[in-house]
């Protein structure tokens, strides 16, 4: 029996070591002990940060959308500007002394542009087409044009009670046209007829701007 005692002690020690090793393996890993767990934790914040900038960069404002070639963004940004002409007023004055009709247009534009102009008179003796012109407008200014008429045309011009002037920037939609109407200035009486010269009331124009039509 005494001879077996050392052998039994060795077996007991080996059993205890085996149990201790199995218990250690069954315990959960502590923070920092598992490299894979540490890598997973480090990767998660990077994924969240990557999602944020994508959303912000996707939300382009109108100017950036227009620069990027987005037609819808450009349409919203431009709005009134696509019509070029913003506002205008016109005045028409006949001058029987030299058989001419003077057109004066005060205008404002979003940008310099080539503009087509058409002027007409309306009265008891019928309509009279004064003429059509092409000119270039700046951002703001005054345009003046004199239309030479014959004797019969001058008589119709003096009998006119209303004028109409159309303004349209070249290569813009039809609805961008400005229609200006009003009463011509009363002509000075000819001194050759013996009557004193006198000017009448100033004619007033009416018309809608491109901004009002778009609204």
Rg, Å, rounded: 44 Å
Q: Which residues form runs of ≥5 with pLDDT under 50?
A: 45-63, 191-204
In what range is the share of β-strand residues? 25-35%
Q: Secondary-structure element order, as H and E?
A: HHHHEEEEEHEEEH
> Number of DSSP strands?
8
CATH homologous group name of the domain at 83-184: C2 domain
Q: How many DSSP helices?
A: 6
Distance between the termini: 113 Å
The appropriate CATH architecture of the domain at 83-184 is Sandwich
Strand line-up across the major sheet = 4-3-6-7-8
- Report helical residue fraction: 25-40%
Average pLDDT: 74
What is the molecular shape? rod-shaped
Largest sheet: 5 strands, antiparallel
Please give the CATH class of the domain at 83-184. Mainly Beta
Structural class: alpha+beta
Q: Give me the CATH fold name of the domain at 83-184.
A: Immunoglobulin-like
């Amino acid at each position: 029996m005494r001879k077996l005692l050392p052998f039994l002690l060795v077996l007991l020690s080996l059993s205890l070591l085996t149990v201790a090793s199995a218990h250690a393996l069954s315990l959960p890993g502590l923070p920092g002990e598992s490299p894979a767990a540490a890598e997973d934790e480090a990767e998660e914040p990077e994924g969240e940060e990557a999602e944020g900038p994508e959303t912000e960069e996707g939300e382009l404002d109108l100017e950036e959308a227009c620069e990027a070639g987005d037609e819808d963004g450009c349409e919203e940004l431009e709005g009134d500007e696509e019509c070029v002409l913003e506002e205008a007023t016109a005045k028409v004055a006949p001058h029987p002394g030299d058989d001419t009709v003077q057109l004066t247009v005060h205008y404002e534009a979003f940008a310099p542009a080539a503009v087509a102009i058409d002027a007409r008179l309306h009265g008891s003796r019928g309509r009279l087409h004064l003429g059509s012109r092409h000119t270039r407008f700046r951002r703001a200014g005054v345009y003046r044009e004199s239309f030479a008429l014959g004797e019969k045309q001058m008589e119709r011009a003096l009998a006119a009670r209303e004028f109409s002037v159309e303004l349209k920037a070249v290569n813009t939609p039809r609805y961008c046209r400005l229609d200006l109407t009003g009463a011509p200035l009363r002509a000075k009486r000819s001194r050759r007829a013996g009557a004193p010269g006198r000017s009448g009331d100033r004619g007033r124009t009416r018309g809608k701007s491109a901004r009002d039509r778009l609204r």
